[in-house]
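Appendix C: a fully annotated inverse folding record. The material below is reproduced so that readers can follow the format used throughout the book. The structure is listed first as tokens, followed by the designed sequence.
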């Protein structure tokens, strides 16, 4: 593909002059071979830029979806990418229009950090990696600068009141009360027997009943689980941690959530496996109070306000700009 593009470029300019082109001239020559996705003021947005932005998402979609669902997802990804690139161009134009300046040391520091942290201070290794992606240091620097500008301008544009009215917080709490409910939980331990060496289902059941008797007489369930359980939790004393009702199969969960703290179940046979359950602790279903939930609610609403402010700002920029999507 790269060879084909270079060959086509040679058809556009003479062999003698191709190597004398500046980076900008070369980029414009390549744009002649690329499809336009949109134009923002006097800035072209190419299909290759769109694909570069959503390349990983496109590949993931192709692996997970097919048919009409895949087609719709690809269209959605392309639309989102085009709009994101349009917004970037608008923000960069606004930055330039207002005469803002970005201190060069910010980008110098960013590049130095990348070289130090990702390439052990080897600038040549950093340059080779960029080259493998078809990047030059100049292009990387420009794109990093654009990212910093976009982030800075967005932060400036979305300044909102950090204080959310109490009535609004309470209304959100009431409307989303389910989100602040903590389900019933059981801290569960299990002894699981699978191997035929333990005998038939009846023999395994008898063996587990003897273990349950020992626990009722004072033996530690965790110690017995370490000795006898045949699953990955045996080294932890059969500890399955805190579980919710939908964590395990319906049959196991039904027994687990019927146990009182400190009690052992009767043996359970399911298929070729036998189980003995022990309830370490229980946690009843609870609902967080408004005060317990207040900080989370405040952050959610502040985030929404920032997003709304950003959308309103971008909409103003769009109304003033020339935008054509192909």
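Designed amino acids, in order:
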């Amino acid at each position: 593909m790269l060879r084909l593009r270079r060959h086509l470029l040679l058809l556009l300019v003479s062999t003698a002059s191709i190597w004398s082109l500046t980076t900008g001239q070369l980029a414009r020559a390549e744009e002649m071979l690329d499809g336009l996705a949109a134009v923002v003021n006097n800035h072209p947005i190419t299909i290759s830029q769109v694909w570069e932005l959503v390349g990983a998402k496109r590949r993931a979609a192709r692996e997970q979806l097919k048919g009409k669902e895949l087609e719709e997802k690809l269209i959605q990804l392309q639309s989102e990418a085009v709009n994101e690139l349009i917004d970037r161009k608008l923000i960069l134009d606004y930055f330039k229009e207002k005469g803002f300046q970005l201190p060069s040391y910010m980008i110098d520091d960013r590049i130095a950090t990348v070289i130090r942290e990702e390439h052990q201070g080897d600038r040549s290794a950093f340059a080779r990696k960029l080259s493998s992606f078809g990047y030059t240091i100049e292009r990387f620097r420009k794109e990093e600068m654009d990212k910093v500008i976009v982030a800075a301008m967005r932060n400036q544009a979305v300044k909102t009141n950090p204080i959310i009215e109490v009535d609004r917080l309470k209304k959100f709490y009431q409307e989303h009360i389910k989100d602040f409910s903590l389900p019933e939980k059981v801290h569960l331990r299990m002894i699981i027997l699978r191997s035929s060496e333990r005998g038939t289902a009846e023999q395994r059941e008898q063996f587990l009943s003897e273990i349950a008797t020992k626990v009722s007489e004072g033996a530690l369930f965790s110690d017995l689980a370490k000795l006898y359980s045949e699953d990955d939790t045996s080294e932890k004393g059969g500890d399955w941690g805190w579980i919710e009702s939908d964590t395990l199969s319906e049959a196991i969960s039904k027994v687990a959530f019927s146990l009182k703290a400190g009690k052992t179940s009767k043996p359970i046979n399911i298929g070729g496996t036998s189980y003995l359950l022990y309830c370490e602790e229980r946690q009843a279903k609870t609902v967080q109070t408004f005060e317990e939930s207040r900080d989370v609610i405040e952050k959610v609403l502040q985030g929404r306000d920032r997003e709304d402010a950003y959308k309103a700002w971008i909409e103003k920029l769009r109304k003033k700009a020339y935008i054509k999507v192909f």
